[in-house]
Amino acid sequence: MWEWVVRSLVLIVLALAFTSTLTPYLFFSAPHVTDDIIDCRDWARISWNSYLLENNVWGDKGVEICSFNGDLAGWFWRKPFPSSHPIYPEIIYGKKPWLRHSTTNILPMRIRELLSLTMKVNYTTIARGKYNVLIDIWITCDKKADPESITAEIGIYLKLHEPPHDCELVEIDGHHYCYRVTQGGAGSRLYQFMLLDPPPERLDLVKFIRFTGLDRDLYVASVEFGNEVWWGYGVTIIKYFNVTAIDP
């Protein structure tokens, strides 16, 4: 069954390369997504289990993104022209600073009070162009977690569009990363962990947060997973996604 789904995705990617986003509807009418919701509006948000999918067109208003949910979830994109900032179709857990509400009653939470924060994800991305696979964590100085309270951003890159450089080799939970601190998109510090090994099945996000040395009175606002895309076309299918946060 899963192999058949992946073969269908290849057809979708080809459709995205040569046609408008209307064509993939023909492929998504196959039995495995008959009852799915598909939304292709800019900034559209649709729920999936206890998470939120978002067509984040931050870096380019001329892009085409469609998110879908059902037994599987994910998104496909068509971005023919490059841009200085990427788009970021994604799935959200917690209180993203630009949203009014959290998807959970646990986040935002102070770093010191967060006993555990783990992510498990089983996904497939088929794409051409310049893109990556990114886990994004927003850190704020206030529990309301609005854009003005953003203090830091932590990026864990499971796939990079180019080899990492100007970074320090570090080991976290038995896996190797290239680590550096740079300027983030919201004017805050961006702590980057660029994976050098095959992606782990489970990530202990608390270990990454504590590695940065951030003040433990700050808040973990949200955990997000998606594709930063500068140009190209592709699709990401999420077969399984789980973020677990444990408080005292």
Can you walk me through this structure?
With 248 residues, the protein is mostly beta strands. It has a single domain, classed as Jelly Rolls (Sandwich). It has 3 helices and 16 strands. The termini are far apart.
Blueprint of the fold:
Layout: H1 2-18, H2 24-27, E1 37-39, E2 45-48, E3 51-54, E4 64-69, E5 73-79, E6 90-94, E7 109-110, E8 116-131, E9 133-140, E10 150-159, E11 168-172, E12 175-183, E13 189-195, E14 202-204, H3 205-211, E15 219-226, E16 229-246
Parallel strand pairs: 10-13
Antiparallel strand pairs: 1-4, 2-3, 3-6, 4-5, 5-16, 6-15, 7-15, 8-14, 8-16, 9-10, 9-15, 11-12, 12-13
Characterize the main sheet: 10 strands, mixed
- Helical fraction equals 10-25%
CATH topology: Jelly Rolls
Total number of strands = 16
Radius of gyration computed on alpha carbons:
18 Å
Determine the N-to-C terminus distance. 41 Å
- Pairing-aware structural class of the strands and helices? mainly beta
Key words describing this protein structure:
single chain; 248 residues; mainly beta; Jelly Rolls; six-stranded antiparallel beta sheet; 3 helices; 11% helix; globular
